Amino acid sequence: SLSDRLQAVFKKLGGKGRLSEEDVREAMKQVRLALLEADVNLQVVREFVAKVTERAVGEEVSRSLTPSQQVIKIVRDELVSLLGEAEVPLADATLPPTVIMLVGLQGAGKTTHAAKLALHLRKKGKRPLLVAADVYRPAAIAQLESLGKQVNIPVYSEGTTAKPPEIVARALAHARAEHCNYVIIDTAGRLQVDEVLMTELADIVTVAQPHERLLVVDAMIGQEAVRVADEFNKRVALSGIIFTKIDGDARGGAALSVRSVTGVPIKFLGTGEKIEVGTLEVFHPERLVSRILG
Amino acid sequence: AALFGGALNAQVWDDLEDLLVQADVGVNTTTELVKRVKERVRRAGVKEPAEAQQMLHEEMVKILMDQDVPLSQTTKPHVVLVVGVNGAGKTTLIAKLAHRYLDKNQKVVLAAGDTFRAAASEQLETWGARVGVPVVSRGQGGDPGAVVYDAMDVATSTDCDVVIIDTAGRLHAKVNLMQELTKLRNIIRRKMPDAPHEVILVIDATTGQNGVLQAKAFAAASDVTAVAITKMDGTAKGGIAFAIAQEIQRPVRYVGTGEKMTDLALFDATTFVDALFA
Ligand SMILES: Nc1nc2c(ncn2[C@@H]2O[C@H](COP(=O)(O)OP(=O)(O)OP(=O)(O)O)[C@@H](O)[C@H]2O)c(=O)[nH]1
Ligand SMILES: Nc1nc2c(ncn2[C@@H]2O[C@H](COP(=O)(O)OP(=O)(O)OP(=O)(O)O)[C@@H](O)[C@H]2O)c(=O)[nH]1
Ligand SMILES: [Mg+2]
Ligand SMILES: [Mg+2]
Known about the structure:
The structure holds two protein chains of two kinds. In chain A, 49% of the residues lie in helices and 13% in strands. Chain A is α/β, with parallel strands linked by helices. In chain A, helix 10 (254-262) links the parallel strand 6 (240-244) and strand 7. Chain B is an alpha/beta fold. Chain B is 49% helix and 14% strand. Chain B has ten helices and eight strands. An eight-stranded mixed sheet of chain B has the order 3-2-4-1-5-6-7-8, sandwiched between helices. The longest helix of chain B is centred in the first third of the chain and has 18 residues, at 27-44. The chains are: A alpha/beta, B alpha/beta. At the A-B interface, helix 2, helix 6 and helix 9 of A face helix 1, helix 5 and helix 8 of B. The complex binds guanosine-5'-triphosphate (2 copies) and magnesium ion (2 copies). One guanosine-5'-triphosphate sits between chains B (84, 86-92, 114, 117, 120, 169, 202, 230-231, 233, 256-259, 263) and A (106-107, 137, 189, 191).
């Protein structure tokens, strides 16, 4: 673990009254290693280590902590602060319906989390409508309809012949007619470099004017997280992140990468396949810090 | 200090390391590779960065080629089990494999072994209809073992060449789900002694270091015979393949290059490494 490695580093360097620049640099090699193993993007690691080095050098070694504990504390604090605030609320439009759109790479967990969000909102007394805007993936609509049925939430779909922006336009009209105050749009997975599909996404945004544009990111994603998040953010102006599959053992360093490249808040963590209470957690940075540091 | 004279200096090595780390090769594998190449460079007295990079290419190709085993299809039906974490691309890969076998005039049947996830059977059935192959399924909530049993019966009785079995995505950290996978593999084995003849582990090209843990766990639970790397049409380089190949000592056989049934390539180590450096 990182604390073991840091203890080994400081043992070699011996006890001192202040953290010298060399001590800190030696310790930072271990921090850098831990973060890279956790899949934090290389550039983000560099910036993070530079920031922590600056904070740590010259710090008075606390009487209650060993130097390695001191460095870990600084690293943890910095990680918590970078990962962002806990419990940033979902938009709640003054003129309903509030429109939420889920976007992201293939297989990230969008369809599953559209249903989880709908359940979460219903538990809060809202009246959500799910919209099946993925006309490409075989049985994608059946999947969302099945999940909606499981939790008794209506799903608006038009099959696969209509174009997603048109489906969404009519879904909004339907939501208003049915007095649904939340509309959750499930979109098809797409590569951030797929020009046609990224343009389609921008078209959906134009039509739907979503109050929330959430990027759904799989916790096991590696270095590419930065490029993916950056491009989605440029095309769709994200308002939040949902970080999924953290019930696995992926370290999840991508959370730091995505957060630092977009500046957008992580709003939810996905922790389970089932659509039930407990598989969608409201974000708390501490929830990710220990696993990222290993 | 610059170990080499001229242009092949520490900066060159740093840049090469960065490139590998950013391609998800991982710090340990990168360090190993660079160490090996530096030694070769030293012994051969290489001065040019381009030559050093070429040696790095070769060492990387070697890691992958060391695991290369020719694909053999000697029994009928040839039973293929497809496994991997959630959303990696298993079901889509199966459609692509079915299409490939059909193209070679082989008779194929698919088994909808994911009886857990919403619309998983429908998804495979839709693919089966598009590709033109039958699908044995029992819908959501059924017993995966029963589906697999039925499918193998159908394969034998209808003289199929290949039966490809889809399984539910599962996070390898979930012990009970991995045990379920071992159970499924044992059911296949009891039904037909050398089956499954292939167990394909599906890995998403965007996967980071967790990919090694996935490979380890799936290999232990189901005796993975080969790896398929999907979504290589994105910007990810699939660099985790090197650590995976070394960890489970199995070849990468297939590469997913898109969402259509024709978006399947046979793995070629040189092409893969070239693309990583592109
Ligand atoms: N364990 C676990 N599995 C999840 C989680 N979220 C989604 N999954 C699973 O991941 C797989 C992919 O989820 P989907 O919701 O279909 O992903 P998607 O982003 O809609 O996929 P595309 O529409 O193909 O782009 C499914 O097997 C889900 O059950 C999670 O938080 N934990
Ligand atoms: N771009 C691209 N997308 C792919 C590729 N392979 C699969 N996909 C997409 O990835 C998503 C997930 O594919 P699935 O085949 O459902 O994955 P899976 O492993 O069966 O998922 P679960 O059964 O839920 O665990 C779908 O949207 C596929 O179209 C590929 O090679 N390239
Ligand atoms: Mg989906
Ligand atoms: Mg599947």
